[in-house]
Amino acid sequence: MILVTVGTQFFDELIDEVDRLAGEGAIRDRVWAQVGLAKRVPKHIEHVAFDRELSAKAKTADLIITHAGTGSVCEFVTLGRPMIAVVNPTKAGNHQLEFLEELSKVYDLCWIASPQGLDAALRNARIPRPLVGSTADRLATDIATHLGLVAATME
């Protein structure tokens, strides 16, 4: 099963792209999507607005496709499941892109800058792995330390 989540708000472009790929047969697996406050209804994938069992589903998913919200990425990166994080470029100041650029310096993870890259990313999805000197158990500390170092060099 492929689990797709957009968090508590909406990211219709991501849901639209997953739905399109499923409809065209590029995604053949069962898709379970948490679509939040979506304005459009997917036609080719199973979906709910919100799912209280999302974390449990993520632990057994064959692939997680998630918006690049900090909380979601930090939760899912430690699960040992193949994952693709997708930036929502409409979010304030494109902070999700900046977050993933910095996180990818500490963790090897598959991420894309917009939903339009999802088809290609499906072939590159992998289990996120900490790079040298990091461990999944230290994710929050690693991120805070790295971002602190980056901020210090920008001052």
Report on the architecture of this protein.
It is a single chain. This protein has helices at about 10-25, 55-60, 70-75, 95-105, 120, 140-155; strands at about 1-5, 30-35, 45-50, 65, 85, 105-110, 110, 130. It has about 160 residues and is of the alpha/beta class. The chain has a single domain (about 1-155), classed as Rossmann fold (3-Layer(aba) Sandwich), CATH 3.40.50.2000. The chain has a six-stranded parallel β-sheet, sandwiched between helices. The chain has a two-stranded antiparallel ribbon with strand order 6-8. Strand 1, helix 1 (about 10-25) and strand 2 form a beta-alpha-beta unit. The longest helix has 16 residues, at about 140-155. The protein is globular. It starts with a strand and ends with a helix. The relative contact order is 0.15. The model is unreliable at about 150-155 (pLDDT under 50).
